[in-house]
Amino acid sequence: MNAFSMDLSHLATGLTLRAKAAAIGASLTIAALSTSALAQDYPEMTLKFGHPYNESHPLAQGAQMFSDIISEKTGGNVDIEVFPNSTIGDARELVESMQIGVVDFALVPTTNVASFYPPLDIFYLPFLFRDSDHAYAVSDGPVGEELYAGLLAETGIRTLGMYESGFRTITTSDKKIEAPEDMQGVKFRVVNNPLNVATFKALGANPTPMPLSEVFTGLQQGTVEGQDNPVGNVKAFGFDKVQDYITLSNHQWAGIMFLADDKMWEDLPEDLQTLFAETALETQTWERAELQKVEQQYLDEMAADGMTVTVLTPEQASAFQEAMEPVWAEYGPKIGEQRIDAVVSTQ
């Protein structure tokens, strides 16, 4: 190749590189303009998202993920401030705050929302759900949709999804729980809901309603001797540090409702409603999978730290189920036998 040819070759190469650079630059400019244009489509706003969970819990992480995704997809125009650890109210207070427009989004257990819309008590009937898949099929299917529509009509609170904290366990400070009679006389923290009080009265315990944010102190000071919560809550809130025994009773499934103030919702543009709804379901899928993944890890860690883990045999679980039958007798007619039958028959 002569010098002239080499010069042409270098020139061609230079032109090609410059053309590529120009093309890349143009693409980046177009992308930036597209993102900017997209962001301009969304109004600037700041919304509040409250929940009672510790930042290390998958529930808290799911809420923060929702906020982060919305911020990214709106170019920062929509800022959702997340307040964990009951910093702007416990579960009941969050529902009340949504009703007066002070809080825009919240994660609240079904049993707390049931205080405002009693049909939701169905989610906490003891031993109602066969497993997690059954609970998901109910909460995501026709039964759930009917309940959420009723909640919206009754309270002005919209349901965007159903996270979970898993099946509830029993923890105690000084005795292993293997049979219903082991609960006799135990000072026991329960969720502030009549159904939960009735559930542990049926076991002979002395149930004491208490907000989740106060449970650790109550256990530490001996105000209560035990409590029931899913594994993730036991670990995230440090209950394993002040309790020596955990029984995997799986007596109730703890669905955690992803709620939105409907007055706020109705003022949103339709594309933002769609984005919120889709992102809530996206993070619901992530949170459920993450919770399932970490539960066994938490149990292993608690056992390694000296906590006694008790897994009930089928016969032992049946004894607890039989002892809790009076709760079904009392609450079945209130919830509606037809609705209960629909849950039981859900596949």
Automatic annotation (TrEMBL):
Gene Ontology biological process: transmembrane transport
Predominant location: other
GO cellular component, as recorded: outer membrane-bounded periplasmic space
Top-level taxon of origin: Bacteria
Key word RNA-binding present: no
Leader sequence segment: 1-39
Gene3D superfamilies (alphabetical): Bacterial extracellular solute-binding protein, family 7
Alphabetical keyword list: Signal, Transport
Localization terms from the record: Cell envelope
Coiled-coil ranges (or none): none
UniProt record similarity statement: Belongs to the bacterial solute-binding protein 7 family.
Name of the protein this chain belongs to: TRAP transporter substrate-binding protein
Organism: Martelella lutilitoris
